[in-house]
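Minutes, methods subgroup
Present: GH (chair), OT, SY

1. OT presented the first of two proteins processed in the latest run. Sequence and structure tokens recorded below as shown on screen.
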Amino acid sequence: MTWQPAAVLTRLLIATVLVCLTPMAAQAAGADDEEERLFTFKDRRITESSGLALSPGHEGVYYTHNDSSAAPEFFAVGEDGRTRARFTVRGAQARDWEAMAASTDPETGRGVLWFADIGDNLDGAWPDVSVYRVMEPAVLKDAVVPATRFRFRYEDGGRNAEGIMVNPRTGRLYVVSKEFSGGVYAAPRRLRADRPNVLRRVASAPLMATDAAYAPDGNSYVVRTYFSATIFDTEGERITQVSMPQLEQAESIAFTRDGKGLLTGTEGPSSPVYRVPVPERALPEPSASAPAPVETQPAQAAAEAPVQRASLSIGGVLTWVAAAMGAIGVIVFLARRTR
């Protein structure tokens, strides 16, 4: 394999910045909430749990799927961590499954599962990405299930993404990109299966987002990163940041059924799933009227909200400066050696 200095330097810069950001994120998140380990996946076939969702129709059941290079399948897991059923998605490809979401069909009341083949480590190598819609199985027994495939293209060019979410009030699908300047992209209100659907940016997303989920009441959503999670209102305004348990590779997040907790998991064999309480300031007021969903907001105004308006302390700024100076120094050093 030919050594490419530019690629190595880019990866080194990313690693340096992320390492410097870790203590900064932990300090910002706080540690006032207590995490609870719910269970550990016991199925040896679940080696890279990348998506997580609560079953809309089966109490105490969680769904997950593996990451890239796996079969197009998902698992129904009980509260004891044991697999209740494995389902194969007929006709689907698993190029790079990165996330899943669950919703309820407003007409039938039946659960709907969404599986996102949206990973793109080359940031735009694929002409389009896919999301598969599967009706939730009524019986938890190993089976092959049909799916509807929806193809998507970003209005502003291809990108890598690892998060999807569905607004429970509108049924609208969103994709959250995994970038330094990430974005929340809204799918069309009505999805077409016969041609690519255009994803339009409606809000900013935190640095290197790995998953996202809507709250059950549709009044807020959460975006997970490697360091913590951030809760936003539907206009893209940041509500609060939530500390997360230290995980090997934080990949998934979902709300509990009552919306008072967050579930988060990681990749790896026998990986755990944790429950983290949602801070009271992020819970909706009982008498508060529901705000407009994010898709009704102008894209430019919404895009300014989540990241740009977050304030940094003096210590945080100094950390950023130190990270930048250190990265630049390493790059200059290596660049001179590779002449």
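2. SY then presented the second protein from the same run.
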Amino acid sequence: MAITIKDVAKKANVAPSTVSRVIADNPRISVNTKKRVRKAMKELGYHPNVNARNLAVRSSQSIGVIMPSSAETALQNPFFPEVLRGIGSIAHDTEYSLYVSTGGDDSQVFEEVKRMVFGNRVDGIILLYSRANDPIIDFLVEEKFPFVVVGKPYNNESSITYVDNDNVHASMELTNHLIEFGHQQIAFIGGTTDLMVTRERLLGYKQALATANIPFKEEYIIHDEFLRSSGHKAVEQLFALSTPPSAIVIADDMMSLGVINMLEAFGLDCPEDVSITSFNNLYLSELTRPPLTTVDIQIYKLGIQSAKCLIEQLKSKDEPAKRVIVPYAIKYRSSTKKIN
């Protein structure tokens, strides 16, 4: 015999309408009542009709997650699985599913976002990047669709909810570490120039040089994708210069792995010949030889906070825009060395 809402209500000693509201995750129902009803559901083996519930509350119970590029490329960088793990932990706790974009190029991703929104496939969206002049953000703002950005928005900062680190200050601190070790010829390897995280980290690097009265050299700046192969190309370019750098600030650990490998191919040692500092504190950063001095940006927590902010928006249409800054910490390891 099929178990019904009435059976659950009787076992939990509540009204059937209360069971329905618990299934719909009504915020007005007390935590204790929710626990009692869910315990009764579990003991009776009752599973609500999710499709019927979603139709009734006009909810998909899904969160859209948008990558900065195709999933195939993005998932080569461990940042994305880790931030997804953080988002997924909150989604699981709040009974939401994740709908991850798999579009190939920018136009395909944009079309997929439109399908998510107009097809009622998701209740809200998390963007795992912040880019200058992004049509997706403009579209979501225009449609007044709930969304959160991981990264500082290019514009409308005060009206968009976002989760980020203080990338400018972190980059200043990282560059200052190299300056304090006696380095004057310091290069910067970052992501593409349209990404706000690249702009913020480059700005911090420039500010540290200016404060130390070290001339800024345009030829010391390299921009590419956050991939290991990009680190290879950067080394070829930097060490073809007449005065190559003695230290490098690198905006991503995956790039750093490529740099270290390519330095070996050039007959150079890290940190004996070149000191390296990096960002993200991926699990690989401790396993490299040498282990990387890198900024721990707490990737998992970025995911958790972005999901929490979005769920708050979904529960209350009047939720104000928020700026959540996740603290960072520099992990000093063996990839930097003082010079005379």
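Chair's summary of item 2: Residues 162 and 204 are 20 Å apart (CA to CA).
Next meeting: continue with the remaining queue.
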